[in-house]
Design a protein that fits this description.
By secondary structure, this protein is of the alpha/beta class. The chain has 24 helices and 16 strands. The chain has four domains: about 5-150, DNA polymerase, domain 1 (Orthogonal Bundle); about 155-250, Beta Polymerase, domain 2 (2-Layer Sandwich), CATH 3.30.460; about 255-335, Beta Polymerase, domain 3, CATH 3.30.210.10; about 345-580, Metal-dependent hydrolases (TIM Barrel, Alpha-Beta Barrel), CATH 3.20.20. The chain is about 45% helix and about 15% strand. The structure holds 2'-deoxyguanosine-5'-triphosphate (DGT) and calcium ion (2 copies).
């Protein structure tokens, strides 16, 4: 059991205690301990072995004993008993947007609601609105929340699916007889959310059976859905589905291209092949009209790699991220594919939080982590005063932070902290800081965090007004969406991009895996309008800085090149840019 698993269990204990209506201090102690453990820099195993857990702030005797039990035995009696004492459906109900432990407890106590289905029925019969502290509006929101949950239930956030796929790939790779293997599907295309994981293997025929066995007996399998000679499917305990396909090595490049998709891209590729008189499928190129089934394909062209397939069709290689049938085949034919941005192009980032607002790490720790990544600069952007829920800074605290950054900067060689803010765009489009404060900062990220329920016209106007403010460097998370949780506020993104172009403002590609906002589908337009994109992590701890690299994947999907991105600039150029901006 690692610290992350321990942190998750502690957090769940806190929630279970809330569901039971326990003393709030006790509940909070578990939530806090969870956060502390998940960001622990020391090795937790070592701390337990040396009996030093209690040196950590917020970890008393009871918590220390529980963490020790978890680490040593992989279980915790207290947690198991707690879980047994409540209907298991209550925890699932917390996934409905707007429902916290307090409300779930009332629903259970008063209406005996134990599952999301029961909740949906009760709300449809207006029994929920009648409860104290609920009302018709809350009831309506609950119904919408359930709908949205159902809509998203079968998709997963990118990093979650990627970690899962990498673990399985590691196991498959080491099996005897495996020749090549890769992740395919939407994960290879770096989509913002993933339906299921697709893995492709080429192997000697004699090895297929034990490869399939290794896959279906993987320790995290919940259910084997199918096990066959060419394809097996499993459902993992994490509720992610995973497909494994095994082909022979001659078929491999064709199968990889086919199962990478997208479906729409495949259809266009097949149409192009037809113009050459060929049929293209997952087994190969064959002459139209000849037998196309596996094993009977008379390949007209042999291809060893995906590159060979594109070459046969007189196309340059199309990176998987671009295979969405959004003009990539035409561009590949005319040699006009973009030279996509890479992880190595990133030289720093903006929009990072510290423990001065709702972040976890200190500014020093964030700066150190950025330098370990080899970056030249890091933009600190804590919340502004109206964002009370996120520990927004007041005037004095922000001024203090600016001073602190100056002081820190005198100690760095070849690195610089940039002082900034994530300033709230207030409902009328004005900013939460006055000009006196804003002009003292190196950069300003303006973003909406309140009053989401506006019409498209209203929120577009609100954003454009903020963009026009001369102190604003960039617009943060343009739609405010939380993937698989809530849609963003309605925005006319074309108008927003046009305004950013007119006023020379940057637009953030917020790279938090729940946001990926600006959506990649708008990146190409922004690029055409020469709007610079900043790939920002919205990091709340040192680990969060790495989200920039997920953002690079999304930027690649949006046809973005190094020169389209603010934080590929050197420190010197950034300082010049910010001075001019
Ligand atoms: P997902 O799993 O919903 O995130 O999206 P994908 O793209 O991974 O879709 P999936 O897992 O259903 O199938 C993997 C790839 O297989 C898909 O991207 C393209 C290919 N594929 C699947 N079904 C079809 C089909 O009916 N026609 C064509 N041309 N390709 C298909
Ligand atoms: Ca898939
Ligand atoms: Ca699939």
């Amino acid at each position: 059991m690692d610290k992350q698993e321990i942190a998750e269990i502690l957090d769940e204990i806190g929630t279970l205690l809330e569901l039971k209506g326990e003393n709030p201090f006790k509940c909070r102690a578990y939530h806090n301990a969870s956060r502390t453990i998940s960001t622990l820099t020391q090795d937790i195993k070592e701390l337990v072995a040396q009996n030093r857990l209690r040196e950590i702030k917020g970890i008393g005797e009871a918590l220390s004993d529980k963490i020790t039990e978890l680490l040593e035995t992989g279980r915790l009696g207290y947690y198991d008993d707690l879980k047994k004492s409540l209907p298991p459906g209550l925890l699932a109900m917390l996934n409905v947007q707007g429902l916290g432990p307090k409300k779930v407890k009332i629903l259970f106590d008063k209406l005996k609601i134990r599952t999301i289905t029961e909740l949906q029925q009760a709300a449809a019969q207006h029994k929920v609105a009648a409860l104290d502290g609920f009302g018709a509006k809350t009831e309506e929101n609950i119904l919408q929340g359930i709908e949205s949950l159902k809509k998203h239930a079968d998709r997963h956030l990118y990093p979650h699916a990627k970690t899962t796929a990498d673990c399985i790939l590691d196991i498959i790779k080491t099996q005897k007889g495996v020749i090549r293997c890769d992740i395919a599907g939407s994960l290879r295309r770096k989509k913002e959310t993933i339906g299921d994981v697709d893995i492709l293997v080429s192997a000697k025929p004699s090895a297929v059976k034990h490869i399939m066995n290794a896959f279906t007996t993987y320790s995290d399998v919940d259910k084997v859905i199918a096990q066959g000679e060419t394809k097996s499917s499993i459902l993992l305990k994490s509720s992610i589905n995973c497909d494994l396909r095994v082909v022979n090595d001659e078929e491999y490049p064709f199968a990889l291209a086919y199962f990478t998709g997208s479906k729409e891209h495949n259809v266009s590729m097949r149409s192009l092949a037809k113009k050459y008189g060929w049929s293209l499928n997952e087994y190969g190129f064959s002459k139209i009209g000849s037998e196309e089934k596996r094993g009977n394909v008379k390949r007209v062209i042999n291809c060893k790699t995906e590159e060979d397939i594109f070459q046969a069709l007189k196309l340059s290689f199309i990176p998987p991220e671009l295979r969405e049938n959004m003009g990539e085949i035409d561009s590949a034919r005319t040699g006009n594919l973009p030279n996509l941005i890479n992880n190595d192009d990133i030289r720093g980032t903006f929009h990072c939080h510290t423990n001065a607002s709702d972040g976890i790490n200190t500014m020093d720790e964030m700066a150190e982590a950025a330098q370990i990544l080899g970056w030249e600069y890091l933009g600190i952007a804590d919340h502004s005063k109206s964002a009370a829920y996120a520990g927004g800074l007041n005037n004095d605290k922000l001024k203090l932070q600016i001073k602190e950054i100056e002081k820190q900067n005198s100690t760095f060689k070849n690195f610089r902290l940039l002082s900034g803010t994530e300033v709230d765009i207030l409902p009328d489009g004005s900013l939460d800081w006055n000009d006196d404060i804003l002009k003292r900062l190196d950069f300003v990220v303006a973003a909406i965090h309140s009053k989401f329920k506006m019409t498209e016209v209203e929120s577009t106007k609100r954003i454009i007004k903020a963009i026009k403010n001369k102190h604003v460097t960039m617009l943060g998370h343009p739609t405010g969406r939380l993937l698989l949780e809530r849609d963003g506020y309605p925005v006319n993104m074309i108008d927003v991009i046009n305004a950013a172009a007119d006023y020379g403002k940057v637009i953030e590609l917020n790279s938090h895996p729940m946001r990926f906002d600006l959506d990649w589908r708008y990146c190409k337009y922004a690029k055409e309008k020469r709007v610079i994109i900043s790939i920002n992590p919205d990091a709340h701890n040192i680990g969060g800085l790495n989200d920039v690299f997920n953002g690079v994947g999304i930027a690649r999907k949006g046809w973005i090149e190094k020169t389209d991105v603010l934080n590929t600039m050197s420190l010197k150029n950034i300082l010049n840019f910010l001075k001019r901006a």
